Amino acid sequence: MVSHLFMNVEETVSVILFGIGFTMLLLHQNLIKKIMGMNIMDTAVYLFLAAKGYIRGRMVPIVVDGVREVSAYINPVPSGLVLTGIVVSVSTTALMLALTIRLYERYGSLDLDEILTRAKEEEKA
């Protein structure tokens, strides 16, 4: 059992990272910590995809020295998914941070419970 974990160390690390990020997302009330948890989860998924797409002994899918056999190259789809995911992740993080700044300016706190309490008080008034 333990030897399988060490054989697949990248996948094991990605699962642990995902768990850390998910725990941060669920247990912390601070919005910045929730954003950090989302980013850790994103990174775990990218690591997992990159680890699954890599095949030892194969090259990047760029024709070099006239080698055209498919078996000489790795699959480019996981790499493309990771690059696309990084772009989406950066823009999503930027949007979340911008909304967090607006919430802080309006309610004076980054604590989610406090923001919800103040928003309900505003709604009643």
From TrEMBL:
Lineage: superkingdom: Bacteria
Subcellular location: Cell membrane
Keywords, comma-separated and alphabetical: Cell membrane, Membrane, Transmembrane, Transmembrane helix
Gene3D superfamilies: 1.10.287.3510
Membrane topology (UniProt): Multi-pass membrane protein
InterPro entries recorded: CPA3_antiporter_subunitC, NUOK/Mnh_C1-like
Chief place of localization: membrane
Parts of the chain that traverse the membrane: 12-32, 44-64, 76-99
Keyword Cell cycle listed: no
The family this protein is said to belong to: Belongs to the CPA3 antiporters (TC 2.A.63) subunit C family.
PANTHER family according to UniProt: ANTIPORTER SUBUNIT MNHC2-RELATED
Record's protein name: Cation:proton antiporter subunit C
Organism: Enterocloster hominis (ex Hitch et al. 2024)
